[in-house]
């Protein structure tokens, strides 16, 4: 902690002034550009892009940084240069008219030259000095000064003069690029690297599996930190784009915002909210399990929320995807027309992995999407080994996460064994992994889906049946029965069976109810008759009681009568 | 002294043209001074009176450096007789200079 802060302080003290190149990505790699006011050597084999590289440095300097430049061409004629870069949109003629550029073509024909003694290269110095002074140039390119070695024979003089030239350029304070052809075992054929000690950049053009990749490496950069990797670069209609391979740290910001997956049922499996913004999502599964449909659903929803989405298709053409997705209720064409959705379809074999990566970088930088889909990443394996694909994806995820872009990959799993969780080995890199599988049973295949992992949220552990309808996607709870997880028609059959069971039970219940009712009626009638019987018995009994009472009363009256009559008879 | 003169005569009969020479130098540098004295000496010795020599200081006319395709200096250009030849260096190798200018075969 202490040490690092001390280092930082140290760095800021001696930080080397730099001259930004304006070439996409190179300034990141070099931590600001080429060393200001010093020579830089750019070497590489024929066709590696040295001339274009140096020319872009000059043109961008003139256009973007208002630094006029001198291009001294030892190989190509000015009109050739003008024509060569016209396709990149560089108007060298106009720049020359605007006094921002001077092209000087050096032509020496050995056949018409005789060396008759000691000489020096004062002519070159004066010529260059005049060109620099006439437009106030800050940047100079010598492309490639080594050609002098084939025109002039006295190597001793040439070497000392070239050394003097570089010193002189430094004194002039111009930022210089010297190009040099790569030699056998050396960076340049004539050892120019001996004289240019500040910054050396090596360009390579490598072909692997018939697929070419352009690579850039900073061999040396005195007095500055710089990326040391091989960085792929791309030459296209915008010039050169260099791609910083990996960010050095893992400290990109995170978001707590959520992004819907496009169908509520899947969101429900992830706390009902969906994916985190800026996370990476992998959808893997066997062929025909609906990976692209999930991707389309995701994109569709994002676009409906007015988010920009970039769809990189490696398998199908945009038209094909649009047509196919219309069948399940996603109108992607509409989003394309609204400018919210951009397709970029390319065959993986079109170019190397690195080139794909550079292309994606460029597209992302231009289009500024919030959502990126790669469908499918598995096809990339055709152009690189598994580890290369993996490293490419790491870099891509890195790049996108720094920008808080949510990325969704689809991957084709060739085997259905779940324990074999390779999927280009990206599963450990992604934040969420959704697996779509085929379950084959009872002569039919059904899709099932589950969330394998989802970092930072409580996700469902359930296997769901995944159905694609013409209205979109949905998940259905799979049927858990004594026979296990049932899907598709087995599930429906089981459900029917259950319904039948219920009906039968209901029916049985009704019958029992009626019987009880009948029994009750019988019993009740029996109770009624018993009651009547009881009443008649009671009546009978009451009658005897009354008779007894009456008799007793009459007897009493009779006795009193007797008593009374006896008294009167006395 | 007489031998080279004879050779010059032979040449003259073959191509009856004066030598038009331009010598590009840079100020009073060592090489330049040497080149000037060397060419003057050679011309006076081998083609006296049949040459014109223009000495140009590139420092004074810098734009010439580009138009005349100057790199290595000093540079002697023979514009005539045809073909054009370019000799670089301080012209101290008399043999090469004479051959280069076509004065001797």
Structural account:
The complex is a heterodimer of chains A (570) and B (105). With 570 residues, chain A is an alpha/beta fold. Helix content of chain A is 41%, strand content 24%. Chain A has 15 helices and 25 strands. A nine-stranded mixed beta sheet of chain A has the order 5-4-7-8-3-9-10-11-12, sandwiched between helices. In chain A, strands 17-16-18-19-15-20-21-22-23 form a nine-stranded mixed beta sheet, sandwiched between helices. In chain A, strand 22 (464-469) and strand 23 form a beta hairpin. Mean pLDDT of chain A is 84; it is low at 1-12 and 416-421. The longest helix of chain B is centred in the middle third of the chain and has 17 residues, at 30-46. The model of chain B is unreliable at 1-14 (pLDDT under 50). Chain A binds chain B through residues 104, 106-108, 112-124, 126-127, 129-131, 148, 151-152, and chain B through 24, 26, 29, 31, 34-35, 38, 58-59, 62-63, 65-66, 69-76, 83-93, 96-97, 99-100. Chain A: It is an enzyme of class 2 (transferase).
Instruction: Give the class-level CATH name of chain B.
Output: Alpha Beta
CATH topology of chain B: the name is: Glutaredoxin
- The ordered string of helix (H) and strand (E) elements of chain B is HEHEHEEH
Amount of helix of chain B = 40-55%
**What structural category arises from helix and sheet content of chain A?**
alpha/beta
Q: Kindly, what is the distance between the CA atoms of the first and last residues of chain A, rounded to a whole number of angstroms?
A: 151 Å
Total count of helical runs of at least 4 residues of chain B = 4
Q: How much β-strand is present in the residues of chain A?
A: 15-25%
What's the N-to-C terminus distance of chain B?
A: 18 Å
The name of the CATH superfamily of the largest domain in chain A reads P-loop containing nucleotide triphosphate hydrolases
Number of domains of chain B: 1
Organism (chain A): Spirosoma profusum
Protein name (chain A): non-specific serine/threonine protein kinase
GO molecular function (chain A): ATP binding; hydrolase activity; protein serine/threonine kinase activity
EC number (chain A): 2.7.11.1
């Amino acid at each position: 902690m202490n040490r690092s802060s001390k280092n930082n302080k140290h760095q800021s003290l001696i930080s080397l002034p730099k001259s930004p190149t304006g070439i996409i990505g190179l300034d990141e790699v070099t931590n600001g550009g080429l060393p200001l006011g010093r020579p830089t050597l750019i070497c590489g084999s024929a066709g590696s892009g040295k001339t274009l590289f140096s020319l872009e440095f000059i043109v961008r300097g003139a256009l973007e940084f208002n630094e006029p430049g001198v291009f001294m061409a030892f190989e190509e004629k000015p009109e050739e240069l003008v024509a060569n870069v016209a396709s990149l949109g560089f108007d060298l003629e106009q720049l020359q008219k605007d006094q921002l550029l001077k092209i000087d073509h050096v032509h020496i024909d050995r056949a018409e030259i005789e060396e008759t003694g000691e000489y020096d290269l004062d002519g070159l110095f004066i010529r260059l000095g005049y060109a620099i002074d006439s437009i106030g140039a800050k940047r100079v390119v010598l492309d490639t000064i080594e050609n002098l070695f084939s025109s002039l024979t006295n190597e001793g003089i040439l070497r000392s003069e070239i050394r003097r030239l570089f010193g002189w350029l430094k004194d002039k304070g111009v930022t210089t690029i010297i190009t040099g052809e790569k030699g056998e075992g050396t960076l340049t054929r004539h050892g120019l690297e001996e004289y240019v000690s500040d910054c050396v950049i090596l360009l390579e053009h490598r072909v692997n599996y018939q697929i070419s990749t352009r690579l850039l490496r900073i061999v040396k950069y005195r007095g500055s930190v710089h990326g040391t990797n091989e960085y792929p670069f791309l030459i296209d209609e915008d010039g050169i784009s260099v791609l910083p391979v990996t960010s050095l740290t893992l400290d990109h910001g995170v978001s707590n915002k959520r992004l819907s997956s496009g169908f509520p049922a899947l969101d429900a499996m992830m706390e009902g909210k969906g994916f985190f913004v800026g996370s990476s999502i992998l959808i893997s599964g066997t062929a025909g399990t609906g990976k692209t449909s999930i991707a389309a659903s995701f994109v569709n929803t994002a676009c409906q929320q007015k988010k920009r989405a970039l769809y990189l298709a490696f398998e199908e053409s945009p038209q094909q995807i649009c047509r196919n997705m219309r069948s399940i209720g996603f109108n992607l064409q509409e989003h394309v027309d609204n400018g919210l959705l951009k397709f970029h379809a390319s065959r993986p074999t079109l170019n190397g992995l690195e080139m794909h990566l550079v292309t994606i970088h460029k597209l992302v930088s231009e289009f500024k999407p919030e959502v990126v889909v790669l469908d499918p990443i598995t096809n990339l394996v055709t152009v690189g080994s598994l580890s290369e694909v993996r490293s490419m994806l790491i870099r891509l995820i890195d790049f996108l996460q720094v920008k808080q872009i949510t990325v969704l990959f689809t991957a084709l799993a060739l085997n259905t064994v779940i324990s074999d969780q390779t999927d280009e080995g990206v599963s450990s890199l992604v934040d969420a992994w959704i697996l779509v599988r085929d379950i084959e049973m009872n002569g039919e295949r059904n899709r099932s889906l589950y969330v394998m992992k989802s970092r930072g949220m409580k996700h469902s552990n359930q296997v769901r049946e995944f159905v694609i309808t013409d209205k979109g996607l949905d998940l259905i709870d799979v049927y858990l029965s004594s026979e296990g997880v049932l899907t598709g028609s087995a599930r429906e059959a089981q459900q029917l069976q259950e319904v039948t069971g219920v009906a039968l039970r209901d029916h049985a219940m009704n019958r029992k109810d009626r019987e009880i009712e009948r029994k009750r009626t019988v019993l009740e009638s029996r109770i009624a008759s018993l009651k009547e019987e009881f009443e008649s018995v009671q009546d009978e009994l009451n009658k005897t009681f009354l008779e007894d009472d009456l008799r007793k009363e009459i007897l009493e009256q009779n006795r009193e009568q007797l008593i009374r009559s006896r008294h009167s008879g006395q | 002294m007489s031998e080279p003169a004879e050779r010059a005569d032979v040449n003259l009969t073959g191509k009856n043209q004066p030598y038009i020479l331009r010598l590009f130098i840079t100020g009073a540098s060592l090489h330049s001074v040497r080149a000037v004295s060397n060419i003057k000496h050679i011309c006076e010795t081998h083609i006296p009176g049949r040459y014109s020599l223009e000495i140009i200081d590139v420092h004074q006319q810098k734009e010439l450096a580009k138009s005349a395709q100057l790199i290595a200096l000093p540079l002697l250009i023979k514009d005539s007789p045809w073909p054009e030849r370019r000799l670089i260096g301080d012209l101290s190798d008399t043999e090469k200079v004479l051959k280069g200018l076509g004065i001797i075969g």
